[in-house]
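Standup notes, protein team

Yesterday: finished cleaning the Bos mutus grunniens set.
Today: Plasminogen activator inhibitor 1 structure.
Blockers: none.

Input for Plasminogen activator inhibitor 1:
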Amino acid sequence: MRMSPVFACLALGLALIFGEGSASYQPQSAVASLATDFGVKVFQQVVRASKDRNVVFSPYGVASVLAMLQLTTGGETRQQIQEAMQFKIEEKGMAPAFHRLYKELMGPWNKDEISTADAIFVQRDLELVHGFMPNFFRLFRTTVKQVDFSEVERARFIVNDWVKRHTKGMISDLLGEGAVDQLTRLVLVNALYFNGQWKMPFPESNTHHRLFHKSDGSTISVPMMAQTNKFNYTEFTTPDGRYYDILELPYHGNTLSMLIAAPYEKEVPLSALTSILDAELISQWKGNMTRLTRLLVLPKFSLETEIDLRRPLENLGMTDMFRPSQADFSSFSDQEFLYVSQALQKVKIEVNESGTLASSSTALVVSARMAPEEIIMDRPFLFVVRHNPTGERGPERPRHSRRPLPILLDSGTIQAGVDAPTSPKRTPGSESRLCSPSTSWRGVLFLQTGCSSVPQFQLSH
């Protein structure tokens, strides 16, 4: 089997095809197909942007966090997400189907170790829409975790530690420095871990360095594993007439397998295949396979990728959620205007003679739209020290009263009313910048301007 000129890996989740050994899984369940198709669409956008770089991606992770995001959004923002995903998470039966898929992934009949978890971290003092938390729990079977993002480093540690625990230490720094700040209000996270042993391991003695052909025409020497065995195999022709080899490499539990696809001719770009990939095509591969003896030569590799998902998601029509002036999070909180400030995924995968070890974490960071308005006292200002109990408002003055309220002038001083009950005595040489307020001094202990020239005065008795 010849190697593709560009190595791309669609892994960790629904792209790991379930085999016949599954206890109750129906391979073409609607939710699996919809989630896979959406994840693959994002993958296609990522591959286009990656050019010659290797890519490993988790379609299940991105589908999970976007499904959770649906529940927090409203209006056009939610509609764009639903149109891109081709399903509504609140549709009857959709959330239970997602939960059944989750249970299937975690089921004891999977001899290979696979685990997935979702989490939602919310700013502790943020007022949520009434009923959001119980509704979120009903749909996703996970509770809202409250954190204080004003303690930036502690909040970042809490999220990263959760990811680290649920990926068994493979991803320990999902959120780097600056990923969250005091404007962060919500972080949605999915973590996925997979440890699968090949049903037919590669003999270590067969691993040797061979040339790998890169997409730019150059070659590189990499360790290649090799084994001759009977594999499920098929050939596939793209609409433009390109031939591909498709081979299935099962894991020992028979519920999961890796499908490997490579163009027959090394000069054919992998994009000819990734551009038409979807759940139905993967199903067709699986359904047309024949068990044949083949010599499989596969790179022994480890990859770590960090993907900025913003542009791929925007290219699929989900634009409003990234725009501070248009994002609608009214289903989550109406206390502040929010938007998605970051969308990212980190994936690590290692493929060797014994099997595959992989993990992924996908996160959406939702922040307040703008920084708090700055109030900088770098000009003349007024301050009042007030005793609140004695400063309670008294009876209203009659509307016809000639006694005016204090007037705050541009210079930051108070102009007294014409019939003020007290008259300040000016200290010789001082500036007449501050006059007594026209109202009583009820409750006010100190009243001072921040001018550079401060008046000095005494109150008459």
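Follow-up from PR in the comments: Residues 1 and 296 are 6 Å apart (CA to CA).
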